[in-house]
Amino acid sequence: MRAKLELQENHCKGCELCVQACPRDVLAMGSNINALGYRPASIVDPEKCTGCKACALVCPEVCFTIWQVA
Amino acid sequence: MAHEMELTMVKGNEALGEAAIRAGCRFFFGYPITPQSELPAYMSRRMPEVNGTYLQAESEVAAVNMVLGAAAAGVRVMTSSSSPGYSLKQEGISYMIGSQLPAVVVNVMRGGPGLGNIQPAQGDYWQMVKGGGHGDYRMISLAPSTVQELVNLTVQAFELADKYQNPVGILADGLLGQTMEPVRFPEIKEDPGPHTKPWALTGCKGRGKRIHTSLELSPEGLEKHNIKLQAKFKVMEDEVQFEAYKCEDADLIVVAYGTAARVARAAVDAARQLGLNVGLFRPISLWPFPSAALSGLVDRGVTRFLDVEMSAGQMVEDVQLAVLGRAKVDFYGRTGGIVPTPREILNEIQKVMGGEAK
Amino acid sequence: MSKQIAGKPESMSPVVTHYCPGCSHGVVHRLVAEVLDELGLREQTVGVASVGCSVLAYNYFETDFVQAPHGRAPAVATGVKRANPNACVFTYQGDGDMAAIGTSEVIHAAVRGEKITCIMYNNSIYGMTGGQMSPTTLMGAVTATTPYGRGPEAGMPYRMAEILATTPGAAYVARTHVADVGNIVKTKRAIKKAFELQMKGVGFTMVEVLGNCPTNWGLTPSESNKYVTGEMLPYFPLGELKDVTKEVPAGVHA
Lengths: 70, 358, 254
Ligand SMILES: Cc1ncc(C[n+]2csc(CCOP(=O)(O)OP(=O)(O)O)c2C)c(N)n1
Ligand code: SF4
Ligand code: SF4
Ligand code: SF4
Fold this sequence. Notes:
The structure holds three protein chains of three kinds.
Chain A: E1 3-7, H1 17-21, E2 27-29, E3 41-43, H2 54-58, E4 64-69
Antiparallel strand pairs in A: 1-4, 2-3
Chain B: E1 7-11, H1 12-22, E2 27-30, H2 38-46, E3 53-56, H3 60-72, E4 77-81, H4 83-99, E5 103-109, H5 125-129, E6 140-142, H6 147-164, E7 167-173, H7 174-178, E8 180-184, E9 211-212, H8 219-236, E10 242-245, E11 252-255, H9 258-273, E12 278-283, E13 285-287, H10 291-299, E14 304-309, H11 315-323, E15 328-333, H12 342-353
Parallel strand pairs in B: 2-3, 2-4, 4-5, 5-7, 6-7, 11-12, 11-14, 14-15
Antiparallel strand pairs in B: 1-8, 6-13, 10-12
Chain C: E1 2-6, H1 25-38, E2 45-49, E3 64-67, H2 73-83, E4 88-94, H3 95-101, H4 103-111, E5 117-122, H5 160-165, E6 170-177, H6 181-199, E7 204-210, H7 214-217, H8 221-235, E8 239-243
Parallel strand pairs in C: 2-3, 2-4, 4-5, 5-7, 6-7
Antiparallel strand pairs in C: 6-8
One iron/sulfur cluster binds next to strand 1 and helix 2 of chain A.
């Protein structure tokens, strides 16, 4: 694992942009509904994350926090 | 410029500018329009001498919004215009009142409606006193009738604006703006500055962020904001100012403000010489309107008022409201930028006092 | 050992925005906030919110803020900056706010070389009022007020950045977009340059950012980003239209 990823699901509006932006299929849309009434994205395969930040760059709600792990 | 207490001959518009500087105003945003143009010209010359900022905006709309920005930053700031330009400032004034930002806004009135002409008039009473912009709001409006009073009220206007975090209007007309009279200026003051205003936008170093907005999307929230503003306006009603001249024993009282009051005073003096018991009641604060004082005159037994304006009759409605049908209110007005003469007003006085008018 | 490489900038408030799902207003807010963080400007910044979907921007930035009447943000910013020349002052406006009702204010702020940064979010529509035509709406585009598509009687969409680049007081004017990852990075670079030049006192700075409005375009977020790159880009060319710090001044694109 080269990056650690956190997704603040309760701020997510389910726009799917992060899922489409991730080149490594780390993310997928969840099946639950969050408090805002949206179906949030979720982290499904964290091991594959490279920390490329594409998800964080496209997310309009700043849901992602990413750490580079040495 | 003259030192304190020294008498100087100054034109109204320039006196207003100097008074603002003496009051600590270091920011002026304006746009040329007659008959206030000497004021921005004066500021453009004078501001650099006191390390102040004069900026000619691209329009009155821009000017008033620059005022809004500077006010939010916590400095004493002023803009001035004449009737059509003042109309354009109304949106910004409504925003400033909604956001509780202080400033001094000057209207040197001219003939209207529309482009009208550049002669002195009083047709902007409603827009200065009743609002004019959108929403429920109030603004103290001061109407001087001499150049010295213009100076005094300008200085006061800055204090009142800061005290209530609300714009204050100065309502002059083309004649007062052009009149040259001896005046004494107060000593020059520095701007108290943003650090004296716990709401000024200075950058949030060492504190939480500050926001100035007039937007409140929830009806309950906006009503709450309005209730708060109305409570403030209620307190502002204490700032009433007027002059009662020879009113003690008067049977007829002429009511007039600004330049009209200057002329009316001469007419009242002439009437007295003819043995007529006439007085002059001169509202100085047009809002708050001195209703209680007028109503007190009715309590004292006055049954007739003659309202004189350089308009088709605007303030007269406030006089009627103040006396509430308990006294007869006649009206005499000239429009088009025509200043009534003392003779004309005296004629009206005689007509009214000589029994049934007209 | 781990190092944070993405997250909420300090200059952004920890709240959810009111923007529609997938709307890029949030992305542009984040970029501005990151720039303020990186340049250490947060505590001396005064933002000016405009009227449009971003009217509530003051809720999303952890900086002082004032809300301006529709179109007047550059005049308000002028007042703030003149009163406090050490402040970092920026406006955040839509295309309706800047390119329609506020044309006069922004052009004259640029002409005077006001040391402010104006961000225009160009989604070629009036978002807040329900999707009416804006001056930047593309020809043929169907909106609430061009039900048959924008026709010649409504004029052609015009290019705000190019116009501002012709003003002598402008120090930096760029157009970017935020419809894909690479261009989000480029947009941040442009915004950073604008703020740097503002703080160096070089002159007026402006970044026009092309962005989506999925709701009023009736598209999904990803479709709306494709509209930006496929339809808007050909009409609104990207680039630094003016940069006085470059040796050869950039020409104005036609
Ligand atoms: C003086 C005035 N005129 C009109 C409006 C209504 N209005 C609010 S937002 C808006 C358009 C905003 O569009 P834009 O600037 O493109 O921003 P967006 O909502 O698309 O982000 C209009 C016309 C207003 N608030 N004030
Ligand atoms: S950082 Fe890159 S790889 Fe990791 S989840 Fe985000 S987009 Fe996918
Ligand atoms: S981009 Fe952000 S808001 Fe959109 S689905 Fe992903 S996490 Fe949610
Ligand atoms: S209406 Fe359009 S611009 Fe406004 S928040 Fe929604 S998507 Fe964004």
